[in-house]
Specification:
52% helix, alpha+beta, 5 helices
């Protein structure tokens, strides 16, 4: 049984990453929450400068992937422009902290930052966002700011 579950999870993650792959302006994206636990909230978290049509399209694609793998599961969108995400992290915002603490499936992270190379300002902002995420995780785990 475990192999089936791992395969299912792996194919879900690959399909969800594919849905987020080519969306312009997305700096970070992940699914937060345990998708197998219908009693827990789940979110598509997107950080970046993304147009309304693109964010709607991304959300629809990820939602379809989730429904194909977890038919009884709903998901909510949590979208943040980078400066808002940064402010929330700095303020130790409860909802932002929750999004970081929930189980997660990374769809787009700064490890795949080639899309940021086009605009130097966006690349710098992305690095700041990632540093903020790292610092928030360190504070949460009690390891200090580094």
């Amino acid at each position: 049984m475990r192999a089936t579950k791992a395969t299912r999870g792996s194919s879900f993650a690959d399909a969800a990453r594919g849905a987020a792959e080519s969306v312009p302006g997305v700096e970070l994206a992940w699914v937060a929450g345990d998708l197998a636990d219908v009693g827990q909230s789940a979110y598509l978290v997107v950080v970046g400068w993304v147009g309304l049509e693109e964010i709607d399209s991304l959300f629809d694609r990820v939602r379809l992937v989730i429904q194909a793998h977890y038919p009884d599961r709903g998901i909510e969108l949590a979208y943040f422009p980078p400066d808002d995400w940064q402010k929330r992290l700095s303020a130790d915002d409860r909802f932002t902290r929750e999004l970081l603490e929930l189980a997660r499936i990374d769809l787009k992270s700064m490890d795949t930052s080639s899309a940021m190379d086009d605009v130097a300002g966006e690349q710098n902002a992305s690095q700041e966002v990632m540093e903020s995420v790292t610092n928030a995780r360190r504070r949460r785990s009690g390891k200090g700011d580094g």
